[in-house]
Write a structure and sequence with these properties.
Elements lengths: L1 H12 L5 H18 L8 H19 L8 H5 L3 H15 L3 H12 L4 H8 L3 H22 E5 L5 E6 L6
Antiparallel strand pairs: 1-2
Length: 168
């Protein structure tokens, strides 16, 4: 239960700058989990906790007659992550060597067919496929090095944050 509390806390801190409010919302969420948690399948408890926390945050804004943040509807669907992840992804693509950067931009960003890109570059389709996979692997490696992700029961990302360096 403590691990779940930590995840809910991180989720709320990523949206609220008021530590007292975060603590109140975490407490409300955990209380609801304790009182109604036996009715939820253990595999979905984490996703349910995040949903409760999100709903508690909505209730807080409504009760306080405060306007919801501009991107609140995105937050509700976890699409707020898209902007954060795309910003990192762009940075990681920019760090690639020129050929890898070109391939990722053509294939993954612009959506061109790999066979067409191979033809333009004058290389075989098999060679291009390997180069694209290596470039994607480099980007994934950078995400693994710099970011932590939390997933819900369905495998969707619900929260992400920058890893902290503990080797100093």
């Amino acid at each position: 239960m403590e691990e779940l509390r930590k995840k809910v806390t991180r989720f709320l801190r990523s949206r609220v700058n008021d530590e007292h409010l975060v603590k109140d919302l975490v407490q409300d969420t955990m209380l609801k989990l304790l009182t109604k948690g036996n009715t939820v399948d253990i595999r979905s408890r984490e996703a349910w906790a995040i949903q409760i926390a999100k709903n508690s945050l909505i209730d807080h804004y409504r009760k306080a007659n405060k306007n919801l943040p501009e991107n609140f509807n995105s937050i509700g669907n976890y699409n707020y992550l898209t902007d954060e992840i795309l910003t990192c992804q762009k940075q990681f693509i920019d760090e690639l060597d020129p050929e890898s950067k070109y391939l990722i931009n053509e294939v993954d960003i612009k959506g061109k067919r790999q066979k067409d890109v191979a033809s333009v570059m004058g290389i075989t389709y098999t060679s291009l496929r390997s180069k694209v996979q290596r470039a994607r692997k480099k980007i994934k490696q950078r995400f693994d090095e710099t970011c932590e992700f939390e997933y819900d029961a369905a495998g969707s990302i619900v929260c992400c944050w920058e890893k902290t360096c503990s080797s100093k």
